[in-house]
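Retro notes
What went well: the complex prediction finally ran end to end.
Inputs used:
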Amino acid sequence: MRYKAGLETRDRILASARSLIAERGLEGTTIKAICEQAGVLPGSFYNLFPSKEQAILTVVREAIDAVDPDPAHQGIDTLDELVDAYVRFLEEQPALSRVYIRIGVSGAGSSPELTGRMLRHHQGRVARFAAAMRRHSPELSEAMAERRAETLVLALNGIALHRVLDPGFDVGWHARALLDDAAAAVS
Amino acid sequence: MRYKAGLETRDRILASARSLIAERGLEGTTIKAICEQAGVLPGSFYNLFPSKEQAILTVVREAIDAVDPDPAHQGIDTLDELVDAYVRFLEEQPALSRVYIRIGVSGAGSSPELTGRMLRHHQGRVARFAAAMRRHSPELSEAMAERRAETLVLALNGIALHRVLDPGFDVGWHARALLDDAAAAVS
DNA sequence: CTCTAATTTGAATCAACGCTCAAAGAAAGT
DNA sequence: ACTTTCTTTGAGCGTTGATTCAAATTAGAG
């Protein structure tokens, strides 16, 4: 393989960027810090990425994509499964999930591109949750399901947001408690 | 009055800082931008604040204090009133409420002082919501009220978080929908 | 082994940041 | 009017940020 070393370096840089953005935020992350953690000098960074912004955008895309597993809806169809999948994402990929939450606030105002991407992603997520709700409770009107789904998704984001502040926060426990409340409300 | 001009300038600087932090975040806000918007030069800034950090901390304190009106619990005792008060804060003070949400993510990792302050504030808020719940439904166990209160507060923060991304988002409508769901779950 | 393409280096550039300070400029008190 | 106190000015300091590039180094292909 011809470009092996370069691609490995690229991965190392992306990993550093990921953890630094998770800890210090989009603007708090510097090229120097990324390079130090990756064991590389700034020159190498600019051989692999055209700019800091592009590198960050790559990590951001990773994060957004990682929120929704199985984009083709394979096997994840009930509300429980959707919530569990999100909880698993939060617990198994803490760095990426922190990045995801940070985009929502840091991206807004600074990058219209990011804001648009996040809003579209949110809409898709709500639609998926709403569909799961209607599959379980067909008597729900479309509007009602949409409303409840959005409330649930926003609440889950609130839980994820709090974990950025308190790393020891038990997201799984709270997410499931939230789901119980939602179930109680429907019945 | 002897220090009139200085205090007015101080207010103008704080107002600029407030709106800039709301739009661009803690680290995205520069002294130069603050001074430009306030119609003042950097020298004046440093006559009134010892550092950028102190000025920002002042705005942050404002924001945290503004979240909870009536700290002495006067007149705001039911869950509806607590939620309404928060909605009113979000709607009537959009800049401060954006600052509040931003602190949660930007402060974490960069400033332990801010993180601690936010966590303590959150705890107090949850306790207040839990007390209101138990006053309305005395059959609720303390643990259960606490859990439901925390879920509700986090969900409200999720709603506020989303409005940072989407300025047109109707926080009032969603907050009340959330409250209805919570009521349905209890009954 | 050799040659060439891929990769890393690290010093240097330029802009922007937070911050300082001596001097000039209002206002208030007498 | 005069003097003292408060207020603003704006050039300028040191530091750090992102970014560039010619030269040195490494490693795969023939």
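What we learned: The mean pLDDT of chain A is 92.
What to try next: split runs per interface for comparison.
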